[in-house]
Write a structure and sequence with these properties.
With 307 residues, the protein is an alpha/beta fold. It is 41% helix and 14% strand. The chain has helices at 9-16, 33-40, 54-60, 81-87, 104-108, 134-140, 143-154, 159-169, 178-188, 191-194, 202-212, 215-229, 243-257, 287-292, and strands spanning 23-26, 46-51, 71-75, 93-99, 230-240, 275-277, 300-306.
């Protein structure tokens, strides 16, 4: 637990502008690093911490043990946030944090199938109760669908080549493990790519994970719901790690906080903007944090406030 370093921790907590008696949501509990710092700052306030991963919830307990009287932990997908709050009889909140990174325990546990560094089953489910796994994506999706996923969700330059390699390989046998998939990916890439810095399977694994967990569609729905749940002066803080995620966040934040086009053309009955951007440009990790936690290198933090 002590080795866990929450990404952009200080920036996220400062961005929430926490009030001691406020109600806050951490939609991605993980090991509880961000939740702990939010709870520390609460007196009569309450934190609702959500995660769909039962193992993550269990592993957060020790980290949060001194603050559990201020925290309600819910196992669910954050896309269900409205129904979760409805069950808790909470209408609006003072701040919401979404950290879209996959938590370290998931990456580091070979049995979960997220990592390309160790051998394990092709799983990648954040919610172990759902049926779709990485095995299904890799072994059952068509060449066209695999290519689309690798290109759109992984920014993979050689998406078609890798997808074609997967389809050819599985004609002989199914791809059952993470390292078996890594070998198929390596064999599908030009030799010059294999000598580049970084793991050749990183982008493909990212893309398959996003597909398995329907992450981008869940994010779009959740952003709309979160904005509607904020009280006046309430803030939404989002940390993303993938260009597709950040694009969705940036686009939504701009839609609700900016008037696009010529201001002289705005009709008299135009509804006033309800939000303002706190961050015109995303906050990124400094060199010190990146050295301590290499996973923070791709993180981008954006903040918006209800006015």
């Amino acid at each position: 637990m002590s080795n866990h370093i929450p990404v952009l921790l200080d920036e996220a907590i400062k961005g929430l502008n926490i009030k001691q008696d406020g109600i806050y949501l951490d939609l991605t509990l993980g090991r509880g690093g961000h939740s702990k710092e939010i709870a520390k700052r609460l007196n009569k306030g309450k934190l609702i911490a959500i995660d769909q991963d039962e193992i993550a919830i269990k592993e957060s307990q020790n980290n949060l043990k001194d603050y559990l009287d201020k925290i309600i932990i819910v196992r669910n997908n954050f896309k269900n946030i409205k129904s979760i709050l409805n069950d808790l009889q909470i209408e609006n909140v003072d701040g919401i944090l979404i950290d879209l990174g996959v938590s370290s325990p998931q990456f580091d546990n070979p049995k979960r199938g997220f990592t390309y560094r160790f051998d394990g089953p092709l799983d990648m489910r954040m919610d172990q109760s759902q049926s779709l796994t990485a095995y299904d994506v890799v072994n059952k999706y068509s060449l066209q669908d695999l290519t689309k996923i690798l290109k759109e969700y992984g920014d993979e330059r050689y998406a078609y080549s890798i997808a074609n390699g997967i389809v050819k390989y599985r004609k002989q046998k199914t791809i059952d493990t993470t390292l078996e998939l890594v070998e198929v990916i390596k064999n599908s890439l030009p030799k010059k790519v294999l000598s580049n810095k970084g793991h050749p399977a990183k982008q493909s694994f990212q893309a398959i994970r996003i597909e398995v967990n329907d992450e981008l569609n869940a994010l779009k729905q959740t952003l709309d719901d979160c904005l509607s749940l904020l009280k006046k002066n309430g803030r939404l803080v989002v940390i993303s790690f993938h260009s597709g995620e950040d694009k969705i966040v940036k686009t939504k934040f701009n839609q609700v906080s900016k008037i696009i086009g010529n201001r002289l053309d705005i009709p008299d009955n135009h509804k006033p903007l309800e939000f303002k951007l706190i961050t015109r440009h995303p906050i990124i990790a400094d060199e010190k944090e990146i050295n301590l936690n290499p996973r923070s290198k791709s993180a981008k933090l954006r903040i918006i406030e209800k006015i």
